Amino acid sequence: MRTKPLLAAILCSTAVLGVSGLTAVPASAAPSGLKGDFNGDGYADLAVGMPKATVDGSTTAGYVNVVWGGPQGLGHTGSVRISQSSAGVPGTAEAGDQFGTAVASADLNGDGYADLAVTAPGERLKDTGTDHEGTATVVRGSAAGFSGGVTAAKGSWDGRLGQEIAIGDFDHDGAKDLALATAGNGQGGAALLRRGPLTAGSPEDLSLIWTYAAGGARAMTTGDFDGDGTDDLAVTYKGMEASGTHVLSRGASGRWQPGWNTGDYGSDIATGDFDGDGTADLAIGEVQANPEADGTYCQDRLGGAIATVYGKQGTALGGKVSCTTQSSPYVSGTAEPEDNFGGSLAVANLDRDSIDELIVGVSHEAVGTAQDAGSYLWLAAGQDGTLLGPAFTQNSADVEGTAEAGDLFGGDVATGDYNGDGYPDIAAGAPGENARSGGVWFDASREEGEQPPVTSTTPAKLGLSGAVEYGAELGR
After folding, report:
1. Cα separation of 472 and 476, whole Å?
2. CA angle at residue 161 from 291 to 79, to 5 degrees?
3. Are the beta carbons of 363 and 333 closer than 8 angstroms?
4. How many whole angstroms separate alpha carbon 434 and alpha carbon 173?
5. Looking at the predicted structure, is the pLDDT value of residue 3 above 50?
6. pLDDT of 190 above 60
7. Are 219 and 205 in contact (CB under 8 A)?
8. Average pLDDT in the 129-135 region?
9. Do 379 and 388 contact (CB within 8 A), yes or no?
10. Pick from 462, 291, 451: which is nearest to 378 by CA?
């Protein structure tokens, strides 16, 4: 049984999507409605973005590999490759496009199937000049797999649209919207809104959410942070003159208003109900202090720290704040410089109680003498709000592989019910594995019975070509 640390301290077939188009998968009778289930078969699928991958000889054109979920989880039911060279997907794969920089999934057209949102911030939209305006694309899910796509948004200046992405109904009209981050070339960045529905023929207009001086968003997430029943946007950002994390809400007038903010910023953020009180909490991973601010949530940040800001009824994130490091009680590992503790975050209710767990990547953790081998943890909140829990490396029992220098195990983490047993599972990327070809590890969650082995899915096992740093960008 996998219990909370508070209470207890091959490949069958591979479908490749190339120039010829979208390869079908076994059809399902009806969509499951499960998050991340692109073909509606009742299993969540995992989208792996590879913006540095080569496509048709074009370096860093980028593609997305979607690994199908199945009864045995990830890596046993094949995968499909999606690029701008795929029939039905807008655009052309060109050097430097970086298609797959950010990936996310949600039902974006209301048909019950999850759709794939993917960005290409390196895309050039003009025949002349050196600007990288960037694009966002939605590839539609269906019973037969993916069924073509539409251009959801285009950048209009050298802002590299799509550095980050978040999905939510921010304007409260019942249709999912995209929040997209830009990062200007020597200029300030911005967060922009592309309103839904995200269907063919819908307006591609972008409106301003917020601007960031001489910098931009490092991560974004969606949650109901003020408890009014609607989606809000949380952004952690860094610039030369200002940095911090804030929650933004779109009012009835269409204007965005900040509801909560701090000068602390991080490498990643995630939302969940970590204390089970029914309010949304916010975790800020690898938190850093704004040097211009008077204080910080985490004074001790050796090796990385996670600030958890708890919600409170009647206000936005008005509860207590805890700080967790690898020096915290009951947290596995040892805090060492540049561990990157909290550099990647994901959330799941692993045992389906009323409390979410936080999945934490520690990509630069040394394992024995192997520097930057990496690890990941799943953490639950203790009585004081501090998170606590065990860590896993490639040297852990029943984890496939061997911890080696530069593997960057835990470089990104994601969650989903990939084996269809009703409990969320964990996916952990290791982009440095096999000389930076990379890989993803599948950790099945079970409430009862012996914990199954943690198995790997790699480009070699999937028959993928041109793969670079597989596992660095996982869709959530």
Report:
1. 13
2. 110
3. no
4. 46
5. no
6. yes
7. no
8. 90
9. yes
10. 451
- What's the pLDDT at 155? 94
* Encoded tokens for 133: 């305006």
What whole-number distance in Å separates Cα of residue 361 and Cα of residue 346? 9
Angle at Cα 333 formed by Cα 329 and Cα 334, nearest 5°? 85
With tokens 């000389």, the residue in question is 435
Closest-CA residue to 191 (of 170, 161, 222): 161
| DSSP tag of 433 | H
Closest by Cα among 330, 416, 331 to 103: 416
- pLDDT on residue 419: 95
In terms of Cα–Cα distance, which of 201, 217, 218, 200 is closest to 209? 217
What span, in angstroms and rounded, lies between the C-alpha atoms of 410 and 400?
A: 14
Q: Is the peptide bond before 197 cis (omega within 30 degrees of 0)?
A: yes
- d(C-alpha 411, C-alpha 339), whole Å: 11
Identify which has the larger pLDDT, 426 or 5.
426
The alpha carbon torsion through 222, 226, 228, 232 (nearest 10 deg) reads: -20
Q: Residue 304 has what pLDDT?
A: 97
Six-digit token pair at 155? 């950048």
Are the C-beta atoms of 295 and 270 separated by less than 8 Å? no
Q: What is the pLDDT of residue 447?
A: 66
Task: Please report where in the chains the tokens 């074009």 appear, as a residue.
Answer: 58
Give the residue, 385 or 160, on which the prediction is more confident: 160
Percent of the chain with pLDDT over 90: 78
Please answer whether residues 85 and 93 qualify as being in contact, where contact means their C-beta atoms are separated by less than 8 angstroms.
Answer: yes
pLDDT tens column, 325-375: 999 988 998 999 999 999 999 999 998 888 999 999 999 999 999 999 999
Label residue 260 exposed, middle or buried (CB < 10 Å: 0-12, 13-18, 19+).
buried
Phi then psi dihedrals of residue 78, to 5 deg: 85, -175
Distance of CA 145 to the CA centre of its chain: 21
Q: Which amino acid is at 294?
A: D
* Residue 79 bridge partners (DSSP): 67
Mean pLDDT rounded to a whole number for the chain? 90
Return the pLDDT at 12.
31
Contacts of 370 (CB under 8 A, 6+ apart): 403, 404, 405, 407
Asked whether the beta carbons of 103 and 116 are under 8 A apart, the reply is yes
List, in sequence order, every residue forming a beta bridge with 85; answer none if it has no partner.
none
Please tell me the distance from the alpha carbon of residue 252 to that of residue 11, in angstroms, as a whole number.
50
pLDDT score for 8: 33
3-state secondary structure of 272: strand
Of 418, 345, 337, the residue nearest 376 (C-alpha): 345
State pTM to two decimals. 0.93
